[in-house]
Amino acid sequence: MKKNYLLLSKEDNWVRPFFKKYKWLLALVLFLGFLTFFAASALMFTSGYLISKSAARPENILMVYVPIVLTRAFGIARPTLRYVERLGSHNWVLKMTSDIRLKLYQAMETRAVKSKSEYQTGNILGILAEDVEHIQNLYLRTIFPAIVALILYSVIVIVLGVFSVPLALLIALLLGVIIFLLPLTAVLVNNARVYRQKAKRHVLYNQLTDAVLGVGDWQYSGRYQEFLNGYNESESLVRDEDKEMNRYSRFESLGKQVIFGLIVIIMFVWAGNYFGKTGEVIYLNWIAAFVLAFFPLIDAFAPISDSVKELPLYEDTVQRLSQLPDTTPPVSKVDDEEEEIIKGSEIIFKEVDFRYNEQSKQLLQNFNLTVSEGEVVAVLGKSGVGKTTLSKLLRGDLLPESGSITIGGIESSELGEEQSEVMGVLNQSPHIFNTTMRNNIRLGNLKATEEDIEEAAHQAGLAPVIEKLPLGLDTVVEEGGKRFSGGEQQRIALARILLQDTPIIIIDEPTIGLDPMTEKQLLETVFEVLKGKTVLWITHHLVGTHYANRIIFLEDGQISMDGSPKTLLEENTKFKELYQLDLYE
Ligand SMILES: Nc1ncnc2c1ncn2[C@@H]1O[C@H](COP(=O)(O)OP(=O)(O)OP(=O)(O)O)[C@@H](O)[C@H]1O
Known about the structure:
Blueprint: H1 17-21, H2 23-55, H3 65-110, H4 112-118, H5 121-163, H6 165-213, H7 215-220, H8 224-276, H9 281-301, H10 303-308, H11 311-322, H12 336-342, E1 347-354, E2 364-371, E3 376-381, H13 387-395, E4 402-407, E5 410-411, H14 419-422, E6 423-426, H15 437-442, H16 450-459, H17 463-468, H18 486-500, E7 504-508, H19 516-529, E8 534-538, E9 550-555, E10 558-563, H20 565-571, H21 573-584
Helix pairs in contact: 2-3, 2-5, 2-9, 3-5, 5-6, 5-11, 6-8, 6-11, 8-9, 16-18, 18-19, 20-21
The structure holds adenosine-5'-triphosphate.
């Protein structure tokens, strides 16, 4: 079902607010836009007069001196004004799109974890590349020219009205067809087509990003040709829509030219009559001036319907953007004093219920867990039981349906930007950026000194890795850290966490995919350097859980086993069995 019309309405918080934000620059841009066409028209007007007057061979050059000067002045003014207007309008648009990009980034960033699962990469790229560009075009190609055309329209009708009211009405009617009727018809005729075209483009985007990200798998499966055929098919569907649109534009353009031709003839006949009836030759010079003055104005009116036709597209863009989460980044409700209390404070899950949506299963049900300061709690449970979800709830990325999750008495979701000062995360796939090794580690704390970085790298066991790099810590590493093994990537992430120096650390299966020896070494380092921190450690393996003070098993939304590794191994038969199984894995 189609939603209410949003673009430029009161609820539109993506396009409309920017009119107010830089309103003076906007007013200047519109005024310059008007002046540009005015200068173009005045240039033709004075030229028309000058040509006619010169053709009558004036006795003295001084007789045409004023029109010569004016022609020169307008000749210079037109491109200059156009240039300044372009500078102004692009400056305005760049300011505005940079604000939109920031807003978009905040919208995605505040819910980074959620957005990744909610939006396909192609969709995000689509928003970034297409939608923001669309809004840019909306201003440059539709809104600015339409407003300038309306101003010109009013001025032309008023000026002609001074000479002849019927003429002014007739021209108002004909120009009205071009700037009101044709654009309206274009929107009505092409509305559905524009939506279809955009939907098909999005399919293309998604297909393409899917293919780029999974190109290896397409190749391995031997179905590359199949993918290409599918892609070509989708592309030809987009092309078909393009063809239809172009056909409409050609007919419309013909209509516009006919109307412009008619206006020129009308102006010619009127000027001939108006100035001819005086019987004086000097007045005849104005005929060409009036007729020629109209020509440059064609450029102001003709593109309106082409650009207005794209309004449904912009509407769709605004609809899509408005579905993004609220963009105000969560403001930390923690003041400095509270932060002191938070540091090293305990984590309490109290009567927490959680499921992702109506259709998904209840992952946590009346879940209670208290992790004391400095405690290392290993969270185990079958795959899909909700271990990672538990860590996302703790980070405040997800909100519980009911119950509370507090860190030192503060709701975790209220931590806002303080979150990164309270919690560090070591997860399955840390991202390594395409910059120096030093910068990659510094990410943990931008204020860290060179010594801090070296110390963290050393503690995380990165010394042998750095030694092998040609420029040591200053070696630029590839994005994704392809040159490093899984264990080495985890050590880089560990160094970041050490720099971050938070009282709470969430460890989410960083050793997944590592061989047992590397896993053992990594865990040794991790728990050695994280001594004294409060740790929530999500893991599949029982082996190694001796690093934890306490192990809990998650089952059916609650804790089914809870105890120290030692007591569980001694007293709990089920745990003993699982431990044996894990040993032989
Ligand atoms: N964004 C989401 N929307 C809906 N369901 C989700 C979402 N994210 C995860 N789930 C589902 O919630 C369940 C728990 O996921 P979670 O990742 O917490 O499990 P896990 O215990 O960490 O699993 P594993 O050990 O395999 O990593 C799974 O069935 C998963 O499919």
